[in-house]
Automatic annotation (TrEMBL), chains A, B:
A Pfam family annotated for this UniProt entry: polyprenyl_synt
Entry EC no(s): 2.5.1.90
PANTHER family given in the database record: ALL TRANS-POLYPRENYL-DIPHOSPHATE SYNTHASE PDSS1, GERANYLGERANYL PYROPHOSPHATE SYNTHASE
Stated role: Supplies octaprenyl diphosphate, the precursor for the side chain of the isoprenoid quinones ubiquinone and menaquinone.
Protein name, entry field: Octaprenyl diphosphate synthase
PROSITE patterns in the record: POLYPRENYL_SYNTHASE_1
Swiss-Prot/TrEMBL keywords: Magnesium, Metal-binding, Transferase
Family: Belongs to the FPP/GGPP synthase family.
Alphabetical list of InterPro entries matching this protein: Isoprenoid_synthase_dom_sf (IPR008949), Polyprenyl_synt (IPR000092), Polyprenyl_synt_CS (IPR033749)
Cofactor(s) required, per the database record: Mg(2+)
Length: 338, 338
């Protein structure tokens, strides 16, 4: 896949999110402190489980979006730090519950909480973090921000149930799949970006721009994640190539390869995804079929499409360092596949 | 146990919550409609799972507390209906997650959602209902009510983790146990009762009275529930006598019998609770030991103690039909043990 993308992107420098990291560094220091403090509890198991995941080296992209989006509209105060922390807690709660639902043993190359403390602790500590997220939002006191984030919480869960209901269904259409990832992934990116302008009292148009940016960035992010599972380096990703395949997940590369395949190939996909025949040889064949049918390249192409929409969502906004940084995030999300 | 309590209570009429049922009937009609509408989703599995539990015949005591507490202070509007529905959704979400954590097969005499749709659906639909609960609270727009209910959400999860951490620990003290049930059960009763006066703009004192009433009613309710498991009729309770025992739960009757027992008896409790030797003969011995040591009677005694505090919390309030109805609820909770 790297090759495909390099051809498309010519000789551009490798994308980074350095500008975003720099401009949010001070605020992220406060977010990280708040994370530790709000994941605290006299009930020992809670900080143990929470910190295991929190310290496991996620990029914390979502809270940085909230911080940069608030800065972009001149917000001064402390509420963006609280909302950014809420966003990260919502994300962490989702991961804890996801690992239970997917029966995952590894996340970002580390044992999942559920393999160390059990499914029970993962469910309950997830609930606790979600409760803490809401408490922080309430402290902020913006009903608009609460509205956006509580709606996202419902939609994320709805997306997860959709995914569960469609599990192992190879006949899932691309549109149905987009509906799932829009709910389970893009909704939180969207909310994270929108609450920035909301607490900065920015205009309706500015809010809509950031919301649309977040939605489309989230879609691109998820699609690239799905592509990486069939070819990314496990070192960068913290997950092993083929994890989705072994878990029988119907992601876009699978959907495209299946729909474009011969009847023999479709029988292979059914045996792999539905019946769990997913050894190394099967993974090799799967990747081969994806390459033959351009399934990875086109997944990246779809991601680029959403990336373009995210970019255009920001186009009418005044040129600011924050705007440039957020655009760089789009490039980063898409080009990390190289 | 019935005998013990009859002696205490003399010849009083059997307690009912008829007054509460009557005064909240019209509002509960609206709550029930809102429950159906807000448990709805285009994702088919969500209303299926949600309605399975919602229609399984719980008493809906918590939302009735919210409604009566709002009426008590002359509230007129629709927000009490939304908050009552939020409270019931929080409760339902907790039950869905609890059944996963406890690996329960039956609830109120019916198969649990997790045995029909799996743990995954139960976790995710619980998350969805919690999200919907928050959305309704946000619609109400009272930051004070949001503060109370979001704090309760965190505290409930904290209580559940405490319970998990103390699971099968027979050395749990009574105080530690009270801390658990205060968090996992009483916090929601307390929040349900307090948000009534909050949206009715009642005084600080009135709010505090209802909060204290709710907390202590919740403690009494949980203790009686635990006593019933060792002697209630399964028809009334919708759960079978001995469920807690077979699940190795360290409830107050167990704590008291264990602490008061001989070393032989303590060995028996360890074998039952820690090692899972909980056949019919063991249950019979357990019940026998509880009777010998007055563990059930004293659990009911502790419940009565909290019931008295709940009653006194309401004492300074003007005599209203709502006040009488709420006091009747205390009697009902305690006397359902008969």
């Amino acid at each position: 896949m790297g090759v495909v993308l390099n051809l498309e992107q010519g000789k551009r420098e490798p994308a980074t999110i350095q500008a975003l990291l720099d401009m949010t560094a001070a605020d992220m220091g406060r977010v990280n402190k708040l994370i530790l403090s709000k994941a605290g509890s006299d009930v020992e198991m809670i900080p143990e489980v929470a910190n295991h995941l929190i310290s496991s080296g996620g990029k914390r992209l979502r809270p940085m979006l909230t911080l940069a989006a608030a800065q972009m509209f001149g917000y001064s105060g402390e509420n963006h730090v609280k909302l950014a922390t809420s966003v990260e807690f919502m994300h962490t709660a989702t991961l804890l519950h996801d690992d239970v639902v997917d029966e995952s043993d590894l996340r970002r190359g580390k044992k999942t909480a559920r393999t160390i403390w059990g499914n029970q602790a993962s469910v309950l500590v997830g609930d606790f973090l979600l409760g803490q997220a809401f408490r922080m939002m309430v402290e902020v006191g913006s009903l608009e921000a609460l509205d956006i984030l509580s709606a996202a919480a419902s939609i994320i869960a709805e997306g997860e149930v959709m995914q569960l209901a469609a599990a192992k269904n190879l006949d899932t259409t691309e549109d149905e799949h987009f509906a799932v990832i829009k709910a389970k992934t893009a909704a939180l990116f969207s909310a994270a970006a929108e609450v920035g302008p909301v607490i900065a009292n920015a205009s309706k148009n500015d809010r809509a721009a950031l919301r649309s940016y977040g939605t489309n960035l989230g879609l691109a992010f998820q699609l690239i994640d799905d592509a990486l599972d069939y070819g990314g380096s496990s070192k960068d990703l913290g997950k092993n190539t083929g994890d989705d395949f072994r878990e029988g997940k119907v992601t876009l590369p699978v959907i495209l390869a299946y729909r474009r395949g011969t009847s023999d190939e479709r029988a292979f996909w059914k045996s792999a995804i539905e019946d769990g025949n997913t050894d190394e040889a099967a993974l090799e064949r799967a990747t081969g079929l994806m390459t033959r049918h351009g399934a990875i390249a086109d997944t990246i192409g779809r991601a680029s499409h959403f990336g373009e929409i995210a970019r255009d969502a920001l186009a009418p906004l005044a040129a600011t360092p924050q705007k440039s940084a957020l655009i760089e995030v789009i490039d980063f999300c898409i080009r990390r596949v190289v």
